[in-house]
Amino acid sequence: MIYVLGSLNMDYVGRFSHVPRAGETVLCESFELFCGGKGANQAIAVAKLGGEVAMIGCVGNDDNGRTLKENLLAANVNAEHVIEKDSPSGLAMIWVEGGDNRIAVAPNANFLIDESDVGECLSAAKSGDILIAQLETPLEIVLYAFRKAKEKGLTTSLNPAPAAKNLNQEFYQYTDIIALNETEAEILTGINPVGSASINSVIKKLQNFGVKKIILTLGERGAFCAEGETITEIKGEKVNAVDTTAAGDTFVGAVAERLSAGIDFVAACQFANCASSITVQRRGAAVSIPGREEVEAICH
Prior knowledge:
By secondary structure, the chain is of the alpha/beta class.
């Protein structure tokens, strides 16, 4: 079983020829609503790719909350531990310019999750299961969940987004896998991962923090995955990217699903890189994530 602790947001997506500068008003080329949230996206990625997954999170007592939960169920995600709180649901405002995005998040119900919500779900977890988390829920709750997970023998996977400067070093001792992009890597390590020397320095620093496996995603440039002294470069797929929303979430979910199926770490990352290359060719968040057969048809 794969557990995903994280956010559920309704995404308000505007597409622009250029993102407005301070004091400037521009017209959207289009505006759409999608179900998202990094936690929900990662859970749906696991489910679409064939994994058994349970979501741990909170929604509000509003129409968005009901829609977000229904979206999980439609993707075969166990939503028993998605708790309704007396609050608006989380939402994200996403500006898309070309194939790139900028995201601002209002956590709302996501920040109302507590230790009892997490503990109840993880009470059924067993050694060998996987727990994924991001940082769109309170940091102290994520750390609590990781402590509990390691007590029970779970593998933990952290996607430190949004990245927090001076992240509590205790996070690293409970993290087996960290998956982060170049912006997050620079915030956490102080090193801009441009060029092979800098990439190696980022990986070494995270290893010194105590993380065993590291995934550094670099967009169209692909990714690097590191385990011990072995660092493997995964070349980017040449595709026409229209929206990078949920690309990283697809990667994280795909790695977890492949590891739970007994696939080795490097092969899991290669599969995830291919899956993400499909996601970026579509608009939206969870809706853009591909299914297992689709990925296998183009991955070699």
